[in-house]
Amino acid sequence: MLRDKKSIIKHYEQSLIWVKELRNLSEDQWRMPIESGKWSISEVIGHLTPWDTFVLEHRIPYLFINTSLPKGPDIAHMNTKAAEKSREQHLEKTIIEFVLARRQLLQTIQQFTDEQWQQSFSIGQSNITIEDYFGGLIDHDLHHFSQIQNVLDV
Questions:
Q1: pTM, whole model, 2 decimals?
Q2: CATH code for 5-153?
Q3: Which residue pairs from 123-127 have beta carbons closer than 8 angstroms and sit at least 24 positions apart in sequence?
Q4: Three-state DSSP class for residue 64
Q5: 121-129: which pairs have CB atoms within 8 A and are 24 or more residues apart?
Q6: pLDDT by residue (tens digit) across 117-131?
Q7: Which of 5, 15, 81, 146 is exposed most, by the fewest CB atoms within 10 A?
Q8: Domain residues of the chain, as ranges?
Q9: 32-80 pLDDT per residue, tens
Q10: CB-CB contact of 45 with 22 (8 Å)
Protein backbone atom coordinates (compact mmCIF):
# COMPACT_ATOMS: atom_id res chain seq x y z
CA MET A 1 0.00 0.00 0.00
CA LEU A 2 1.19 3.47 -0.81
CA ARG A 3 1.83 5.59 2.25
CA ASP A 4 2.39 8.97 0.70
CA LYS A 5 0.57 12.12 1.76
CA LYS A 6 -1.91 12.03 -1.13
CA SER A 7 -2.84 8.37 -0.57
CA ILE A 8 -3.24 8.84 3.17
CA ILE A 9 -5.51 11.84 2.73
CA LYS A 10 -7.52 10.01 0.06
CA HIS A 11 -8.03 7.06 2.42
CA TYR A 12 -9.37 9.30 5.17
CA GLU A 13 -11.72 11.03 2.74
CA GLN A 14 -13.00 7.68 1.45
CA SER A 15 -13.37 6.28 4.97
CA LEU A 16 -15.84 9.06 5.76
CA ILE A 17 -17.95 8.17 2.72
CA TRP A 18 -17.76 4.43 3.43
CA VAL A 19 -18.80 4.70 7.08
CA LYS A 20 -21.61 7.13 6.27
CA GLU A 21 -23.00 4.50 3.88
CA LEU A 22 -23.38 2.15 6.85
CA ARG A 23 -26.40 4.28 7.81
CA ASN A 24 -28.30 2.13 5.32
CA LEU A 25 -27.84 -1.01 7.40
CA SER A 26 -30.73 -2.49 9.29
CA GLU A 27 -30.48 -2.65 13.08
CA ASP A 28 -29.86 -6.41 12.80
CA GLN A 29 -27.02 -5.89 10.33
CA TRP A 30 -25.50 -3.10 12.47
CA ARG A 31 -25.51 -5.40 15.51
CA MET A 32 -24.28 -8.45 13.56
CA PRO A 33 -20.93 -9.88 14.70
CA ILE A 34 -18.20 -9.80 12.08
CA GLU A 35 -17.51 -13.43 13.04
CA SER A 36 -18.83 -15.78 15.67
CA GLY A 37 -17.68 -14.56 19.07
CA LYS A 38 -16.32 -11.30 17.65
CA TRP A 39 -17.42 -7.68 17.80
CA SER A 40 -20.44 -6.42 15.91
CA ILE A 41 -20.18 -3.89 13.10
CA SER A 42 -21.30 -1.21 15.58
CA GLU A 43 -18.48 -2.09 17.96
CA VAL A 44 -15.87 -2.16 15.21
CA ILE A 45 -16.83 1.29 13.94
CA GLY A 46 -17.28 2.62 17.47
CA HIS A 47 -13.78 1.63 18.55
CA LEU A 48 -12.18 3.68 15.76
CA THR A 49 -13.41 7.01 17.15
CA PRO A 50 -11.42 7.05 20.41
CA TRP A 51 -8.29 6.13 18.47
CA ASP A 52 -8.77 9.05 16.09
CA THR A 53 -9.28 11.29 19.13
CA PHE A 54 -6.16 9.86 20.78
CA VAL A 55 -4.09 10.60 17.67
CA LEU A 56 -5.50 14.14 17.55
CA GLU A 57 -4.90 14.88 21.23
CA HIS A 58 -1.92 12.76 22.23
CA ARG A 59 0.14 12.21 19.10
CA ILE A 60 -0.17 15.04 16.59
CA PRO A 61 0.58 17.87 19.08
CA TYR A 62 3.88 16.14 19.94
CA LEU A 63 5.04 15.15 16.46
CA PHE A 64 6.71 18.41 15.54
CA ILE A 65 8.28 19.36 18.83
CA ASN A 66 11.37 17.84 20.34
CA THR A 67 9.74 15.96 23.19
CA SER A 68 8.68 12.44 24.04
CA LEU A 69 5.25 11.25 23.06
CA PRO A 70 2.85 10.76 25.96
CA LYS A 71 2.33 7.18 27.05
CA GLY A 72 -0.36 5.43 25.06
CA PRO A 73 -3.56 4.22 26.65
CA ASP A 74 -4.30 0.70 27.81
CA ILE A 75 -5.39 -0.69 24.45
CA ALA A 76 -7.68 -3.41 25.78
CA HIS A 77 -9.38 -1.03 28.21
CA MET A 78 -9.91 1.66 25.58
CA ASN A 79 -11.29 -0.83 23.06
CA THR A 80 -13.57 -2.46 25.64
CA LYS A 81 -15.02 0.89 26.73
CA ALA A 82 -15.58 1.94 23.11
CA ALA A 83 -17.27 -1.36 22.29
CA GLU A 84 -19.56 -1.08 25.34
CA LYS A 85 -20.54 2.45 24.36
CA SER A 86 -21.30 1.38 20.79
CA ARG A 87 -23.49 -1.49 21.98
CA GLU A 88 -25.62 0.96 23.95
CA GLN A 89 -26.07 3.76 21.45
CA HIS A 90 -27.96 4.14 18.21
CA LEU A 91 -26.30 3.55 14.85
CA GLU A 92 -26.65 7.20 13.87
CA LYS A 93 -24.90 8.46 17.01
CA THR A 94 -21.96 6.08 16.53
CA ILE A 95 -21.59 7.13 12.90
CA ILE A 96 -21.86 10.84 13.73
CA GLU A 97 -19.16 10.50 16.39
CA PHE A 98 -16.92 8.65 13.96
CA VAL A 99 -17.46 11.26 11.23
CA LEU A 100 -16.76 14.19 13.55
CA ALA A 101 -13.51 12.73 14.87
CA ARG A 102 -12.36 11.45 11.48
CA ARG A 103 -13.15 14.76 9.77
CA GLN A 104 -11.16 16.62 12.42
CA LEU A 105 -8.25 14.22 11.96
CA LEU A 106 -8.43 14.64 8.18
CA GLN A 107 -8.50 18.42 8.41
CA THR A 108 -5.51 18.37 10.74
CA ILE A 109 -3.32 16.12 8.61
CA GLN A 110 -4.20 18.05 5.45
CA GLN A 111 -2.36 20.98 7.00
CA PHE A 112 0.92 19.07 7.34
CA THR A 113 3.60 20.33 4.98
CA ASP A 114 5.36 17.91 2.64
CA GLU A 115 8.43 18.17 4.86
CA GLN A 116 6.40 17.27 7.95
CA TRP A 117 5.09 14.12 6.25
CA GLN A 118 8.69 12.96 5.86
CA GLN A 119 9.68 13.84 9.42
CA SER A 120 10.51 10.96 11.71
CA PHE A 121 9.78 10.49 15.38
CA SER A 122 10.22 7.79 18.00
CA ILE A 123 7.65 5.55 19.58
CA GLY A 124 9.38 3.43 22.17
CA GLN A 125 12.46 2.01 20.44
CA SER A 126 11.05 2.52 16.93
CA ASN A 127 11.83 5.49 14.73
CA ILE A 128 9.25 6.02 11.97
CA THR A 129 8.10 8.72 9.60
CA ILE A 130 4.75 10.40 9.95
CA GLU A 131 3.76 8.82 6.62
CA ASP A 132 4.56 5.37 7.99
CA TYR A 133 2.68 6.09 11.22
CA PHE A 134 -0.48 7.06 9.37
CA GLY A 135 0.05 4.20 6.95
CA GLY A 136 -0.14 1.83 9.92
CA LEU A 137 -3.36 3.46 11.09
CA ILE A 138 -4.78 3.00 7.59
CA ASP A 139 -3.81 -0.68 7.63
CA HIS A 140 -5.85 -0.97 10.86
CA ASP A 141 -8.84 0.71 9.20
CA LEU A 142 -8.62 -1.49 6.12
CA HIS A 143 -8.42 -4.64 8.22
CA HIS A 144 -11.67 -3.74 9.97
CA PHE A 145 -13.41 -2.41 6.86
CA SER A 146 -12.60 -5.68 5.10
CA GLN A 147 -14.08 -7.67 8.00
CA ILE A 148 -17.26 -5.62 7.81
CA GLN A 149 -17.49 -5.89 4.04
CA ASN A 150 -17.01 -9.66 4.23
CA VAL A 151 -19.90 -10.13 6.65
CA LEU A 152 -22.14 -7.82 4.61
CA ASP A 153 -21.34 -9.65 1.37
CA VAL A 154 -22.56 -12.99 2.76
A1: 0.93
A2: 1.20.120.450
A3: 123/69
A4: coil
A5: 121/62, 121/63, 121/69, 122/68, 122/69, 123/69
A6: 989 888 877 888 999
A7: 146
A8: 5-153
A9: 999 999 999 999 999 999 999 999 999 999 988 877 788 889 999 999 9
A10: yes
